[in-house]
Specification:
By secondary structure, this protein is mainly alpha-helical. It has helices spanning 2-13, 30-49, 55-69, 73-90, 93-118, 126-135, 141-154, 159-175. Helix 5 (93-118) runs antiparallel to helix 8.
Length: 182
Amino acid sequence: MAREVNKKKKKSSSSKPASGSSNAKVGINPDIVAVSIIAIGIWVAISMISPDSTGILGSATNGLFLGLFGALGYLWCGAMIFCACHYIVKKDAKKYKKKYIMSAFLMMFLGALWHIIDGVEAKGGLLATLWNEGLNANGGGLIGGIIGHLVKSFASDGSIVIIGAIVLILFICVFNISIGKI
């Protein structure tokens, strides 16, 4: 009979750990993350519009966003704020995770499209040229320029059509719209 009691104790001890135990998972509240992203997005927007008002870190942020994304760096802060607000309203990050990732790709391919339309040509080193042109808000910055140059190297004259189609497809996926209903 003593053995049966010991078996019951062992079975009950193998169930889920108590909330106070060291094995319990502790996560960050997703609302806190979303509010933090909104705050960062607003701060980045201020840094993009008026880099002097946010100090040396704001000037560095301005340079980083322009260098990476060119003129579309101004839209990235809006995309950050939009996605975080969308999450707060919908409360289902797992369901919308793909949309948030596709939103980032949409922004990158918009940069590539802008880069090809703007006609930025590499003078000297490709990466340095893309970064410097991005700092001047020309083209799609480093990221859009790399994507644009890759597509342009395979489909010279058709690159606008290819990237335009990719942008349209991503736009349809992100915003869940149908061309026929427009």
